[in-house]
């Protein structure tokens, strides 16, 4: 049996005590990572912050901001050594359900067009492009655009 499947996998709420672990994953995954302040501020603001742990080790997380009937997926990250194993899909499903439970009817996000794994994940779930933000992300050669995607949450049971 696959060791990952036999290990205990939990999706749990995260808080200030988890910031160091989130920051470590973030810095391994992205060339332009979120800062400690981004995580601390998101938690302090009451955003939905959840993590996926395998045998106690934080291997991924998401941050969702809900405002009235709209949710915004601000960050979804899975440690590089765990990518491609279904953890991103687990986290995204949980983010969608928690946003719906909070009253959101739509989930929005920005993604780099060059982030092939993220693009494949969002396309698999049926996200649709609704916009483009020019020069949104820092990049090695200046700036990179962001695609704005949306998913209508009416299909997700609260």
From TrEMBL:
It holds the Pfam family Acetyltransf_1. It is found in: Cytoplasm. GO terms for cellular component: cytoplasm. Residues 9-154 form the N-acetyltransferase domain. The keyword Lyase does not apply. Acetylates the N-terminal alanine of ribosomal protein bS18. One of its GO terms (molecular function) is protein-N-terminal-alanine acetyltransferase activity. Acetyl-CoA binds at residue 115. NCBIfam families: rimI. Keywords: Acyltransferase, Cytoplasm, Transferase. Belongs to the acetyltransferase family. RimI subfamily. Its EC number is 2.3.1.266. This is [Ribosomal protein bS18]-alanine N-acetyltransferase. Its main location: cytoplasm. PROSITE patterns: GNAT. The gene is rimI. It comes from Candidatus Accumulibacter appositus. It catalyses: N-terminal L-alanyl-[ribosomal protein bS18] + acetyl-CoA = N-terminal N(alpha)-acetyl-L-alanyl-[ribosomal protein bS18] + CoA + H(+). The active site is at 110 (proton acceptor), 122 (proton donor).
